[in-house]
Amino acid sequence: MSDKGDSATFDPDFKGPIADRSSRKRRRRRRNELPHLDRGCTDVLCCIIFILFIIGYILLGLIAWVHGDPRRVVYPTDSKGHFCGQKGTPNENKSILFYFNILSCTSPSVLINLQCPTTQICVSKCPEKFLTYLEMQFPYKINNSSWAYYSQFCKSPITRPAKSLSEIVMNDDCPTAIFPSKPFLHRCFPDFSTKNGTLTVGNKTTFEDGTGQIRSTMELRAAASNINKILDAKAIGMRVFEDYATTWYWILIGLTIAMLLSWMFLLLLRFIAGLLFWVFVLGVIGIIGYGIWHCHQEYSNPQHPNSHLTIYDIGFRTDIRMYLQLKQTWFAFMVILCILEVLVILVLIFLRTRIRVSIALLKEGSKAIGYVPSTLIYPVLTFFFLSICICYWAVTAVYLATSGVPIYQIVTPGGQCKHDNRTCNPAIFNKTGISKACPGAQCNFAFYGGNSLYHQHITTFQMFNLFVFLWLINFVIALGQCALAGAFASYYWALKKPDDIPPHPLFTAFGRAIRYHTGSLAFGSLILALIQMFRITLEYLEKCLKVSRRPQCKTCWLSGPEEMGIIPQAGASSAVAPDNQNNISKFLQQCLKCCLWCLEKLVRFLNRNAYVMIAIYGKNFCRSARDAFDLLLRNILKVVVMDKVTDFVLVLGKLLVAGCIGVLAFLLFTQRISIIIQGPTSLNYYWIPLLTVVIGSYLVAHGFFSVYAMCIDTIFICFLEDLERNDGSTERPYYTNQSLLKTLKAKGTRTKKQ
């Protein structure tokens, strides 16, 4: 066959020029290739590597399951490394963790060591009143009931308070004071309340800490600031839970209606796609025109006496309203809007043919989904696979994090001991000289670890867990894209639609992708996973650098303003250079992050189109990606127009579905339509279920429209391939339908359907 078929007989602008001879040869070779035929396994090496990684991932999960113990996350651990509330242990009935001196949690070392430098024991209940050790010694001779209550918060049972306060503090047998607390997350935290706008604990604003000092509730709040915020939100959380318990079935009804609306919208796009687009475009032109008219009115009829001034006359002002009083400002706005209006009109004039083609392809995509409706169910399968991957990754990460034996470290209240953060043995710690060298030092539980080869590489295993998780997530998405592309390609390349569409096209395409193209899908997913892993590593290193740049905490809270850098010291001018270096490094980091983000978006786009070519021709990933890139590059202008028109229609559809369901939910939850239907009447926050319905409806619509977007991309690439492989002659007629050919003004051509 001659190469004349490569040039469109009906629209010379529709096909891009052939870049070089190799591109012409590839196009001639693909012309003789029929879709879906002569398939073989592609990228076998990558498939083998992918399977080996999955086997290693499964083995890692089994090893982590053997060594890990998720109870270490569920149950709190005392200073001896024992679980609180674990059955079959002495702490079975003591499920709450109690801090001897929670005020020490304000120490800056907490942020560094992630441990509060105070003794922690398991108790059955939290203290309910203010008591100090000194207050217990005197009443004990008359009535020992108070001491019986106080002694339950000591390390071991003590019959009477015979020891002095200094001995208690030195041996750390009992807390110096207790105060009203409540359990939260199985830990005792101060029972904060607000009385007349004042923060109180047990109706007190001050209390004695047991050492003769008067402390305020604000110090307690500083010790448990983050937990206090959670405690304040606990009541709100309960109300939100009540609202969900009342409205859950209405939420399900709303999501079901959203699913039906999304399905109807996709089916109706064949009739309303053009109407939606042109109404929007005319609306944009009208809005810009109104803006031009308004700017002209403000320019012609100034309302302010200073309107004759120029921007140069008034200079820089923080009040923007000053600029709106000038004629020059409105003239500039009018010029900008006029230029924008002209650009929009010119784009519509010169790209009108491509816009009509894009709208026709949108209608064709809607028709394809109507003939292959099973594709609308596929997002449920993708969600199922993604849920499995996420759950396995989370469980493996928890088991890896809880692997090992208890590791104890030395902690001191001030964090200034030379032995601080060193490992220790609690059984012999009191016999060493560390407690004398560092008064108040304790050997407390820190984390779980070990010295074996497995425990030394826990961080490496966590990184491997994350990497394979990213690989699997991208593979599941790639599998869905390739399966959907195969189903819609079967529709496009059918000789007579819908009679020649093969039975069960989605199931067939899914099996074909698994059987022949697992390696190619794994190859494309691997590239994305590497980029994402590099981005995550960069984010982690950036956070580590931010922490390392901060001043040492143990000096910040003790130093004056000069030491902290608030007041410049003499000879500190040399610090300007490091600041400039930090600014440059931050700028380079942001540039690198931006480049990686753009690279990920580009690879996603190329992979998506490569999967379409794999579904059509069954070639390996590299060749499919090259062919897809060449095809799109030759039609770059059509690709841009098609992408933007599709994005607009899909976003409009999502907003339409979510907006309709949101309006109905608002009317229902606010009792605006109680005459028609009786909704829930006792909601604390009606906007919580309302937002849930709106966001859920948007996600449901996104799931449906993602199928539609894949359909459009597949039909678009098939359409471009059809135009390059065929010329509309009797020997090589087009596979597309008559309506699209009419849009292209291709009268006189014949299709295989004819």
Automatic annotation (TrEMBL):
It comes from the Eukaryota. It catalyses: choline(out) + n H(+)(in) = choline(in) + n H(+)(out). It holds the Pfam family Choline_transpo. It is found in: Cell membrane. The chain crosses the membrane at residues 44-66, 248-268, 275-293, 330-351, 371-395, 468-493, 514-534, 648-669, 690-710. GO terms for cellular component: plasma membrane. Residues 1-30 are annotated as: Disordered. InterPro entries: Choline_transptr-like (IPR007603). GO terms for molecular function: antiporter activity; organic cation transmembrane transporter activity. It is a multi-pass membrane protein. The keyword Methyltransferase does not apply. The keyword Transmembrane applies. Keywords: Antiport, Cell membrane, Glycoprotein, Membrane, Transmembrane, Transmembrane helix, Transport. Its main location: membrane. Belongs to the CTL (choline transporter-like) family. Choline transporter. This is Choline transporter-like protein. It comes from Phyllostomus discolor.
